[in-house]
Design brief:
With 227 residues, the protein is of the alpha+beta class. It is 25% helix and 18% strand.
């Protein structure tokens, strides 16, 4: 699967890799994006339907190629991980929306794949909403952001779940906060099959599986293990 990632060159540009169809079916871009990411991780050829059918039963056949925005690869001046923080998170899709600018939502390919899977699992459990609010991830190429984290493309901030389905922020001490939905979300994050979770920081003492950290009353900080 092809992703919006740096592929070479010195300037930003638009890269069109084609638009694909399978019979009369038009593929959902987010579904195709997730399939192509998983294809890259597993090494399975997305153009070979037999491979998909035999090794990834959940796939829907050969994945089409989509038009993407190509991010040129910067010359590396640091460690290998800087070159790998190159995959843009979508603005919205099944089960999620973004509340930070796009340039602050670039991560490693596996991080993006994991959260697309998490969002889809959440949407399957809650087809009428609410959706997950996705915040900071990293800058393109990684490096310093506010604080000491979000440098490697493996940290993702998300909003706690509300009890009124509004797509807005809340705090675990406010009446609008839903502890039940937030606990369910934490469980889904830990259960994702794409990338192992290292830690989730959040200050609600009644949420199982999280660790307190200063200034984490109004968002959960999910840190995955580096791929």
């Amino acid at each position: 699967m092809f992703l919006p990632q740096r592929t070479g060159g010195d300037d930003f540009g638009e890269g069109w890799l084609g638009t694909g169809f399978f019979g009369d079916q038009i593929f959902d871009p987010i579904t195709v994006l997730k399939q192509q990411i998983i294809s890259r991780l597993t090494g399975i050829d997305p153009t070979a339907s037999a491979a998909w059918a035999g090794e990834l039963p959940s796939a829907v056949g050969p994945a089409p190629l989509l038009p993407i925005r190509v991010r040129p690869r910067k010359r590396s001046r640091g460690a290998r991980w800087r070159r790998e923080v190159n995959t843009q998170f979508p603005r919205e899709g099944k089960g999620f929306y973004s509340y930070e600018p796009s340039h602050r939502q670039v991560g490693q390919r596996e991080t993006i794949a994991a959260f697309l899977e998490i969002a889809e699992d959440w949407a399957d459990a809650h087809p009428e909403g609410p959706r997950i609010g996705i915040g900071r991830i990293s800058f393109e190429g990684g490096g310093p952001m506010e604080g000491a984290s979000h440098r490697l493309g493996v940290d993702v901030d998300i909003r706690p779940m509300r009890n009124d389905s509004r797509e807005a922020g809340t705090d675990w001490r406010l009446p609008s906060y839903s502890r039940e939905l937030t606990q369910e979300l934490v469980d889904i994050i830990f259960a994702n099959p794409v990338l192992e979770v290292d830690v989730i920081f959040f200050n609600d003492p009644n949420i199982k599986g999280v660790r307190p950290w200063s200034n984490h009353d109004n968002h959960l900080h999910v840190r995955f293990k580096r791929p």
